[in-house]
Amino acid sequence: MNLTKINKSKYFSWVQCDKKLYFDLNLEKKYRNIRPSNKQQLLNYTFEFFDRKYKNLYPKLTNKKDIISSIKSGNTFYSLDFKLENEKLSLHYDAMLFENNIIKLFIVKPAIYPKKNYIKELNLQKYLLNNFFDNEIRSHLILINKDYRFTEELPDLDQYLNIVECTEKVESLNSNEIELNISQINKTIVSNKLPNTKIGSHCKSPYQCDYFDNCRTKLPDFHVEQIPNQSKDLKENLLALNITDIKKLPDMEYFTSLQKRIIKSVKNSKEFISDELRNIMNSFKYPLYFLDFETIISPYKIFPNTKPFEPIPCMWSLHSEKQFGVQIQGMYENKIYYDRYYKFTGEDPRREFIEKLIVSVGSSGSIFIYSDFEIRILKMIAIMFPEYKHKIDLIIDRCVDLLKITKNHYYHPKFKGSFSLKSVSKILTEENMYDLEFVNSGDDASRVLIDLITNKINSAQRKQIELDLLKYAEKDTLNLVDLYKHLKSVSEFM
C-alpha cells in the first residue's frame, strides 16, 4: 500500500469521516453494481464535445510530461481523461483546456445543479495544479441541462451539456486546509487503528456512509439521532446534554410536536394513537385500493419526449378490497384482489400505464398511497395525455396519503424515528420483509428497470431480476394493506 499517495476517494472519505477511510482500507465492501456508473456515458459525451470543438484547433495531449511542458511553454492544447500526480496526491482529470496562458479545468457530474462537494473536488484538483503551475485557473462543472428534451437518438451536446463556471466559489475555499487534511489522512493510514469518531450529521453528509450500520451496533436501541427533523440548534443542545438515549432525555420546550410525541412514545414504551384516528379510519369508502408506482429516473434518453431526470412510470402494483369485511378481533377479513402493470420491453409504457390504471381503480372507492409521489406522477401524466386529465383528476381526488395519517396520528417505538414504509412495515408482519436478491429499495427498482428496458442485463440474470421487481412492488402495496388494517384495528381499541 502506498502510504503517501492519496487519491480522490481516500481524500473525500477522510473529509467525511476518518473512520470511513479506515473502513475503506480495512473492510471488504459488498456492492452489487448491475450497471456501469451514470458518469461514464456523460464522460463519453463530454469527450465527443471537446473533440468536435477543439481537435482541428489545438493538439490533444494525454501524457503528463507533455501537459506540463506545454503549460510551462504557453502552448495551447486540450486534454481529456488524464492523470496528474505529485509525491502526495494522485488525481484523475476529466477535461482541461489551456489557452491564452489560462488553465480551464472541467469536472463532469451527471447532475443538474452544482453541489458543495463538487466545488470541493474542483478545489482539490486546483490545489494539485497549483503545485505545478502559477497560471490562472478557471474552474468549471459540466452538468446536464434539466430543460433539455430528448428527441433524436443522440442528444444535441451544445444544448444537452450545461457548462457552469465555478471559479469564484472555488476561490472562496481555503486551499491551505487541503495541505493539513493530507497530513492527517496519512496519519490515519499509517496508524491502522480504528478512529474514535462519534456518530453525527457527517454520517449522512454529503452521502449516507457505506458503513452507517457498522458504527451503530453498540448504540442504545433508541438513540437521540432517531429524533427526526433536528435543527442545528437542537443538535447542539442534544450534544451539550451528553445524553444519547431518548429515554433519558429531560423535557425540553424546543422539541416540535412530532418530536415530543416520539419521545413520549419511546419513554412510555407505548404506541401513540390520536383521538382523531378512529373517525379518520372510518371515513373511507369501499372498494379500497392500495396503490404504488415504480419509476425510472435517468440523466440519459430512455424514451423520446422526456427530460433528464424526469420520473417515468413503468410499473404499478394494486391491491384491493372490494367490500366491507367481517370484523374478527379488530381485524377486517375479506378477500384481497391483486392487479399490476409492467412493461420491460423497451417500448414507452406511459399511455398504457395510465389507460390500464384507470380501468383497474374504477370510478369509486378510496385509493391509499404512501406519500404524495403517486399524485405528482399522475399530474405529470395528465399534462402528457390531456385526453385523460379529467379521469386522472378524479383518481387524484380519491387518493389518501397513509404516510400523512401515520405521521400525524400514530407512532410505534419500533419505527425508531423513521416513517419510511420499510420502517413502518417492521411492526406489521415478518412476511413482508424486503429480502430479495436484486431489489430491496426504490433506488434498486429504478436501476434494474433501466437495465431491463435498455436490455443491459444478461439472460441468466434477467428472469430473476424481473421476478424480484414484481415481488418488490407487490410487497409495497401489501404492506399498505397491512398498515391500513393495523391503523384500523388500533383505532377501534383506543
Rg result: 27 Å
Overall tally of structural domains: 3
Spatial separation of the terminal alpha carbons: 62 Å
Beta-strand content estimate? 15-25%
Describe the global form.
Answer: globular
What oligomeric state best describes the polypeptide chains here? Answer: single chain
CATH architecture of the largest domain: 2-Layer Sandwich
Low-confidence spans: 30-36
User: Which percent bin holds the helix content?
Assistant: 40-55%
Tally of strands: 14
Alpha plus pi helix count: 18
CATH class type of the largest domain:
Alpha Beta
Stated plainly, the CATH topology of the largest domain is called: Nucleotidyltransferase, domain 5
Q: Which structural class matches the secondary elements? A: alpha+beta
Give the biggest beta sheet. 5 strands, mixed
Mean pLDDT: 91
Spatial order of the strands in the main sheet?
1-2-3-4-5
Question: How would you sum up this structure in a few lines?
Answer:
The chain has 494 residues and is an alpha+beta fold.
Features:
single chain, 494 residues, alpha+beta, Lambda Exonuclease, Chain A, Nucleotidyltransferase, domain 5, 3 domains, 5-stranded mixed sheet, 41% helix, 17% strand, globular
